[in-house]
Amino acid sequence: MGLLSEGSPLSWEETKKLADHVREHGINQFINLYHRLKDRQGDILKWGDEVEYIIVKFDDEQKVARVALKAKDLLEKLNEKELADPKNVKSLWRPEYGAYMIEGTPGKPFGGLMAHFNLVEANMRYRREEVTELLGSDECVMSITNFPRLGSPNFTYPLAQPHPEDPLSSARSLYFPDEAIFPGHPRFKTLTRNIRKRRGEKVSIKLKVFKDVKTKLPVEGAPPGEPDVVLLDAMGFGMGCCCLQLTFQACNITEARRLYDQLAPLCPIMLALTAASPIYRGYLTESDCRWNVISSSVDCRTEEERGLTPLKEQKFRIAKSRYDSIDSYLSPEAAKYNDVPLTYDEDVYKRLIEGGIDHLLAQHVAHLFIRDTVSLFSEKVHQNDEEDTDHFENIQSTNWQTMRFKPPPPNSSIGWRVEFRPCEAQISDFENAAIVCFVVLLTRVILSYQLNFLTPISKVDENMQTAQKRDACRKEKFWFRKSSKSTEQRAAQAANGTSNGNGITTNGINGTNGNATANGNGILKEENGHAKPPVMTNGTSKPMNGHGINGQASMNGSGADSDEHTDTDDEENELFQLLTINEIFNGKPNVFPGLVPLIRSYLQSMEVDTDTHCTIEQYLRFIQKRAAGELITTATWMREQVLNHPDYKQDSVVSDQINYDLLKRIQHIQEGKHIEPALLGQLNHSKTKTKDFIPPALQKQLAKNGCCEEK
Ligand code: ADP
Ligand code: MG
Ligand code: MG
């Protein structure tokens, strides 16, 4: 999201009346943008992270930590550099839902050079330092997923009290005051009000309390008949959580669809690995992740849509909240795994088909468009459907799913992108950088080895629920696709450097820069033989023709995994097995080589400078160890901190004192003052300093390649 433009939000009644208008024009806009951009080719790999942060204020005398409601003031200062010189900033700052939250991204996306993996952590550190400079000595910017006592008495600074009976309140929450919603832009309060009004009542977020020997039941505020439930009643409890997201640019729409599909089954897996939020409203719960909380926090479905009363006013029963995991794959080879019935309006679907959109994309968009707009600004109502995309974006950007398929914005140099959205924010820059780099590397491996992770959507949904269970990372099993022989062969071949001359480079797929040819080492060379720095390219996809995803990189002649062609129903069933997180990341003999070993084999074929190599190796070891349970998740660590705290009374309550000490410890960890072996082991951080970012020689080559530079 760019800097939010100011505007006047319409009332809910006005917005509601315009729901069909937004839908109709949104669909027109999508059809138009599709035809303008569907043939766009040759975009290079670009990628970038988004980290959300909470500002915490410590009262060292009273031993209380609170969220500091100062994001608006901070952002005014943080945005100064960008406003003065938007092209030359190292970071960009944006508002988020909470008045105590900010979102930071790198100033420019990273690109296709291996060396970029060595910049991520430094850039994250830079962002943290940039904010820290603007804070008081008793304040701290923290990349924690949830503030443990969010919604507990007096959790904000300055103190603000909820006003559930006030008709002017947006949230009407018993716990979460409107002052904790970002005040600098009307979008956030408007969404809060409209979601509540559309639903017909306040949102209702239910979490099972972690029952300890002295846990008092019913939990304070528990709904009738559900004594063990921690009830949360406001959008802020979910949208006020932080997460870690990544966006990648694909070379064209086909590759974007493919990456969207291949990454979707990895969402629950990465959610389990990054679990970081076991405490809500001051209670230890049975959940380790924010996902269901945030999903319920914006659940605008009416009782009819949720299936509680017969359909009268509304058109459909709707299975999920607008914030949830994806419901359908987008590429033809994945279509058979779309095993969950998709809800959509036949007329909308028909218009898309008649507008020249293929079935899979049409049903995806039609499904997004079952939602009504919940935030509309008066100056945006009337648009030019040939050029504008605001109505499309209005619905697209309020479908908050595990993956987002992002068309290029109007009049920009940006290509087709996909966003990976499940991960929870980790305490340290090291951890966040490790996760980001891991996922980006995984996309390269998926494209290079044509990996196939496709799993029926119903099983991915099941995995999403499993992922959030207490200590799922060590204790649970997840549906995962068995790898095919051809995958393993490809990986082994690449590792041995025995790739053939079929247009495959061992570093992936032929580059989009026409003068690059592959040599046996997988390094792209210019025709005259001068080696370029190792570049991770995007594919050069042909239109989908059933002959593999990218016309070039087909090792078995058909492009798709060979098991695709011989599947019988029985084999299909055997394809999906229940694996532990350890097995998925580190491998299980005869079933799956492991995500990390696959990345390692890919890296063997890349030329990487020593520094970057060390950094990546640290990240991979961290991921391996966490997956193996040698290092624990942030969620498990937080639980242990609470359970072992002298003030803990075995009653599931995270008191002010415990909260204060927990956050102080987190502060020391993120500042590197305290090494927590259970979380980080002996791993070293990326050595790249913020200021020496990229060596000058590399910078020149970068500029030549057009990497890391917005056109
Ligand atoms: P969102 O719509 O999710 O808020 P943002 O605009 O905040 O997305 O950007 C998300 C990330 O995408 C940022 O890290 C940014 O650096 C990165 N990014 C920007 N341009 C591109 C691009 N052309 N391709 C891929 N990623 C990009
Ligand atoms: Mg963003
Ligand atoms: Mg995002």
From TrEMBL:
InterPro entries, per the entry: GCS, Gln_synth/guanido_kin_cat_dom
Pathway: Sulfur metabolism; glutathione biosynthesis; glutathione from L-cysteine and L-glutamate: step 1/2
Gene Ontology molecular function: ATP binding; glutamate-cysteine ligase activity
Listed Low complexity bias regions: 494-523
GO CC term (a single one): glutamate-cysteine ligase complex
PANTHER family in UniProt: GLUTAMATE CYSTEINE LIGASE (PTHR11164), GLUTAMATE--CYSTEINE LIGASE CATALYTIC SUBUNIT (PTHR11164:SF0)
Job description of the protein: Catalyzes the ATP-dependent ligation of L-glutamate and L-cysteine and participates in the first and rate-limiting step in glutathione biosynthesis.
Protein name, as recorded: Glutamate--cysteine ligase
Organism: Drosophila willistoni (Fruit fly)
Lineage: Eukaryota, Metazoa, Ecdysozoa, Arthropoda, Hexapoda
